[in-house]
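Reply to dn_fold:

You asked what the input looked like. This is it:
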Amino acid sequence: MAETPIRIGILGCADIARKVSRAITLSPNTTIHAIGSRSIEKAKRYASDNSYSSTVKIYGSYEQVLDDQDVDAVYIPLPTSLHVEWVVLAAQKKKHVLLEKPVAINTSEFDKIIDACESNGVQLMDGTMWMHHPRTQKMREFLDDSNRFGQLKSVHSIFTFCANPDFLENDIRVKPDLDALGALGDLGWYCTRSILWTANYELPKSVTAFRGPIFNKAGVILACGACFQWEDGKVATFHCSFLSNLTMDLTAVGTFGTLHVNDFVVPFEEKSATYNSATKSWFTELVTGWNPRPSDNIVTTDLPQEALMVREFARLVRSIKDSNSKPDSKWPTISRKTQLVLDAVKASIDKGFEPVEVVS
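and this is what came back:
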């Protein structure tokens, strides 16, 4: 018999929830059970615009979704400033939580979220979709290969897009009371996660923000960057911006190999993704070319990465429900490390671009 799908409730009608709603529908082990907004009219309109099934419950408050006994888990795409309130309440109602990033305004707030989820035995996972693409595992295998890649020496990550005037004026990501970290929280989250992922989640010893971050008139970051340093000498840099052309580059350099990805956050194509790898490259005779040349690697998938994320989240929820398994601590641990480094970048900016030690 087919397994009963995990029933997911959605808190809020954010634009990103449209993508995750589709992912919940595509995932074979989940279904949208309910949608809640601050008004019933908005929730109804959202459900209609996104072709929700007529069986989906529509609520005029977030509380009603959490009080629905048939909801197994919730997806929370609310502004970052609301995460602590609603994740803690969801955990207390025994709802498992798929949480949009950045997970919190700072690590202190995220620790409240972790404590609530742990004490109530619910799974917590953030919405960093690219982590679940099969390409990510293939790239991990290359990075872990001591013969092909060797020892990690440097990582460089960029995520930018050129936002339109309406975004820069009205989007929640430029509002200090909603998403105070701005581009650092939105785009810098991906850059920081990619660097930590490349370094097998070893925290850097120190972080130094680059001079010249750009703020809007409300003091929210529109563009910034930083350098990370580890005790063993490896380094990393990132740049994130709402003011530059769409770019999603990740480069990792080892003693023997190099990894290049030009679309690490969202692949150019939904069902196929590539990465470029080079091993022991050198110059040709007379230094007129490369030998061997870097190679392009193609990884295909039947489901888009966001549906793979939802499927894995639901698998963990099902394991807890059916087998009394403990929630997987891997995901909140990774989220917390990412948040710690973001905190250090923000602190370095606030302290005049001084180095800030990363303390776990």
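The first helix runs from residue 16 to 26.
Hope that clears it up.
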